[in-house]
Amino acid sequence: MSDHALLLSPNHNASPEPVDPRLVELKQMVLDSVVSPHSKRNYGRALDGLFVFSASRPLTRALLMEWRASMEKDSPSTVNVRLSAMRKLVTEARRNGMLSAEEASNLTGVPNIPERGTRLGNWLTREQAKELLAVPDRSKLKGKRDYVIIALLVGCALRRRELASLKIEDIQLREGRWVIIDLRGKGGRIRTVAIPIWIRQGIDAWTAAAKIEKGNLLRPLSKSGKIVGDELGDWAIWSVVEQSSKQIGIEHFGAHDLRRTCAKLCRKNGGDLEQIKFLLGHSSIQTTERYLGSEQEIAVAVNDNLGL
């Protein structure tokens, strides 16, 4: 490190704010560089955690590798978001003359945690799914729409094309609850999909704000937030998912991964395999079994209750 090495000194009061005023300024620069309130919160927490972990030591690669190792129990996506916040801090330090280009390159070279499962199909944990749903700014019209997109994909296991063509008239009451009625899916198979109440509430908020009463549920919006067409393309849906997932630190994540996430979470929550088949619109239960894959249960193992 140079003579002007950054000391990540935490304040020993209740606040994690660093004593070094340069770090206070750098942290604010990092937070100002991201638009999403969700990202601001995550980056702020990540940097506060780094300041506390450092225990007044200078910012070195060894320190950052130790910090990375200390988070081994957290999900790769969570750790990678924190590392991203650190890299932004280092970049701002270099731009403001606090670190040399060589020092900054060495520090930002701390690698991410590899994401697992991507090649075989990716999915989210329940906590990650909640994080993703929190990304859209629901105080704005676009945020209300994007929330509905993510909610219907992860909560109802819709395919991207099914969602793009979904009409308000397709959402009806059956047996005292809201459902998507007679949804035509892959291979022309027709199914009915139950809509959880929290998704219905999101749909109501979007349609009321957008003043939509019939026709396609989802509509394209201009940069100023005005409806500019009657149908949102399925690639636009893909873009919403991809951009939102990047904000929680997950790369190369698509709309179909949310369909898989819904199936996985249903199964982990004790959902009946045949009912999951109906939800997904699969032709056979064997297809659903292959889709979900096999997962060994360690916490509650099959050989715990042998009665021996």
From TrEMBL:
Gene3D superfamilies in UniProt: Intergrase catalytic core
PROSITE patterns (UniProt xref): CB (PS51900), TYR_RECOMBINASE (PS51898)
UniProt KW keywords: DNA integration, DNA recombination, DNA-binding
An annotated Gene Ontology molecular function: DNA binding
Annotated Core-binding (CB) domain residues: 21-94
Domain Tyr recombinase span(s) in chain numbering: 119-304
Alphabetized Pfam families for the sequence: Phage_integrase (PF00589)
Any one GO biological process: DNA integration
PANTHER family xref list: INTEGRASE_RECOMBINASE PROTEIN MJ0367-RELATED, PHAGE INTEGRASE-RELATED
Family classification: Belongs to the 'phage' integrase family.
Protein's name in the database: Integrase
Species assigned in the record: Granulicella mallensis
